[in-house]
Amino acid sequence: MKENTVITIGRQFGSGGHEIATAVAEALSIPYYDKEIIVEAAKKTGLDENLFKNAEERTMSSFLYSVALGAYSPASNVTGMPFMNLNETIFRAQSKVISDFAEKGSCVFVGRCADHILKDHPACCRIFVYANLKDRIDRIQKLYKLSAGDAEDLINKTDKKRASFYSYYTGQKWHNLQNYDLCLNSAKLGIAGSVEAILAYIRQL
Asked: Which of 12, 22, 35, 167 has the fewest Cβ atoms nearer than 10 Å?
């Protein structure tokens, strides 16, 4: 593995991407950043942490954002753009934190457009985890105790929001294979197999 290797993991909802990411970080003994990004971004902007939670799964027209956009004007010392809207403030703050963490050393990120934010990082490995719908429905049913229909509905809605968020801030399609260095079908490999595949790939870099 190269020095200061940064791993970004995009994932379909229900594919086990979060579990795979934490296992990869543990196996490599490197940090996995998740809540830390929210905490640091909130500090930088002075905004409530709740505004940052699940930001990539909110639509641009959500009620929360609509209210906040009309009530908040970010300070110029945070973004350099006094009239930037709240969505942009949140994204830029998170992007800055992700870049700062990546500069500190090897680490793992999940979602938040990290693959795009760090696309010019010399040792960034961009991974996408997917799985067939049936397996994802089974996983979400068990995790959230939902019916098959409700699980499928949640999967479709969450993936749509993630894709919209990604497209809005990157100008790219979330599922475009050219955005990633390695794509894995976790339904075929399983969680452990997916982790091993990622580790094997990282060792070749």
From this structure: 35
